Amino acid sequence: KMAAAAGAAAAAAAGLWSEVNRCGQNGDFARALKSVNKILQINKDDVTALQCKVVCLIQNGSFKEALGVINTHTKVLTSDVIAFEKAYCEYRLNRIESALKTIQSASQQTDKLKELYGQVLYRLERYDDCLAAYRDLIRNSQDEYEEERKTNLSAVVAAQSTWEKVVPEDLGLREATYELCYNSACALIGQGKLNEAMKKLQKAEELCRQSLSEDSDVTEEDIEAELAIIHGQMAYIMQLQGRTEDALQLYNQIIKLKPTDVGLLAVIANNIITINKDQNVFDSKKKVKLTNAEGVEHKLSKKQLQAIEFNKALLAMYTNQADQCRKLSASLQSQSPEHLLPVLILAAQLCREKQHAKAVGLLQDFADQHPANAAEIKLTMAQLKIAQGSVTKACMILRSIEELQHKPGMVSALVTMYSHEEDIDSAIEVFTQAIQWYQQYQARTNHGCCVFQPKSPVHLSLIREAANFKLKHGRKKEAISDLEELWKQNPKDVHTLAQLISAYSLVDPEKAKVLSKHLPSSDTMSLKVDVDALENSHGATYVRKKAGKLTGDNQQKEQGQGEVKKKKKKKKGKLPKNYDPKVTPDPERWLPMRERSYYRGRKKGKKKDQVGKGTQGSTTTGSSELDASRTASSPPTSPRPGSGAAASATSNVIPPRHQKPAGAPATKKKQQQKKKKGAKGGW
């Protein structure tokens, strides 16, 4: 019976293995897995069945379950038997370090392990080792996967050029596929050859369309999805070239396609955020969600992920999310303590909060802890001091940067700032230190040689700028040594010689006379210029009037006397309409009316001014004031105090401006009122 049962089990197992073989050839790994599980029920430690189960799980994408089977049966599935499958599962589960250890611990390095080893090194960004691994694979293998290996090799070279700034070597690869063209374009972008890279990408797009259009099952949408990564690089080149509008349009077109590559979407969203900067922050907040998609961290390089995190911190600052900005910056600083950007972002956030002193202190601490990056940090500190108005302190910070002290740009900035503060002595000291540095540098390079050596152009330029600066600020005595040095380097420089003579004229006139003998004579200095041709040239700033033909006496007058300017006729001043030459003009006519001695003030007591004032039925003036007989005989009002005797002397004289034309009615208004009254009485 036992023999019969064993025979039946063997027959069942044979049938199951046939089923597994048939399903494997058809690619139906789900059915194959069911048959394998039945075999393992018969014999749970069957090594072949366990291997088949792991392969079926891998083919079905169940990498975690496959790795669980391997780890559960370690006694049966040793590293020699299942090393590749274990490393591949770890690689697909993004356990890259574990995959590397599994590959390195394998006793025998098969071709499959070497291929996987290259992929693992690429993910770990160990590009030099990866390049060597792929070169060895291409050299020692000949199969149908040679084109894929060359593509991977070109991808490694592109990564080196982009992230490590290594000048790529010519691999001699024939760019027959769009993948190779794309990788070559990426390498050119890393070198800054943007126009060449754009041409490569256009070629890659053409090859991609050709290869995909040959397949009848591929739709236009599939082609556009495949071209998305090429178009993304095209947009990136446009952005680098300053064509931000074109780049933004292409980026948005790619996003509308909704590609499945989360890495591509994250990069495009990040680039759009960099274009928006502190503008259109609402769009940036939408785009930043694409950078947080699941699996992005496994698709991008460390520098790409770092750039995205930096932009997140900056976006938080621009949207006034101070706590979020500090949190992200602190996290970045802990990951990369030597990196500048996290500290600069924190300092910028503090400045937005008007905490400039705290920002400067933060930058100073970083400069003390990381001397290698101190120069850039101190430049930022100086900028903050200038923004606060502390120009002198900013100059002190800039002068503490030893590696930049002698640079022409730094010298120019310091001199300008000291001049703004009217500290001429400090500005001259900056020039002196820079000139001394170049003198010492030249002495070191010449190794103490006594032979005369010409100075470098930068050195001579500093000496000339120092001399001009001293002359401009009246320091001619101090400028003499600089001018002598310049003239010594170029004795034919007439301009420098003239400056030197001018400086010596205040200090040593005799020396100035001696030097003046070196000036060229006036004959050699004269320039033969055709004045007429110069005036008639296209660049003349004025147009000469054509001289008219001169005849007779006019010609003789011009020849004898030259041009005579025409005298302008003096116009007579206008007189007042009521001007009377017999009457003496008022001596006070130029004074305002209120300041004249005969001014009596405004007339008061007019009836029209009093109408409607007071309570109903009452009058504001007494009956005596309304009596016409009393008003007519009342004496004139007395002049204002302070008018003096001059008022009575000139009271009878009517000024010209107050004179009325002869024959004019005295009181036209009163006559009209009388006529009205008469008419009323007539009715």
TrEMBL record:
A GO cellular component annotation in the UniProt record: endoplasmic reticulum
Signal recognition particle SRP72 subunit RNA-binding domain: residues covered: 545-601
Name of the protein in question: Signal recognition particle subunit SRP72
Basic residues composition-biased segments: 565-575, 667-683
Biased composition (Low complexity): 612-651
Biological process, per Gene Ontology: SRP-dependent cotranslational protein targeting to membrane
Residue span of region Disordered: 544-683
Feature: compositional bias, Basic and acidic residues: 577-598
The keyword Amino-acid biosynthesis appears for this protein: no
TPR repeats: 228-261
Keyword Coiled coil found: yes
Coiled-coil spans in chain: 96-151
Keywords, alphabetical: Coiled coil, Cytoplasm, Endoplasmic reticulum, Repeat, Ribonucleoprotein, Signal recognition particle, TPR repeat
Domain of life per record: Eukaryota
Molecular functions per Gene Ontology: 7S RNA binding; ribosome binding
Pfam family, one: SRP_TPR_like
Compartments in which it is found: Cytoplasm; Endoplasmic reticulum
Family the UniProt entry places it in: Belongs to the SRP72 family.
Gene3D superfamilies xrefs: Tetratricopeptide repeat domain (1.25.40.10)
Source organism of the structure: Struthidea cinerea
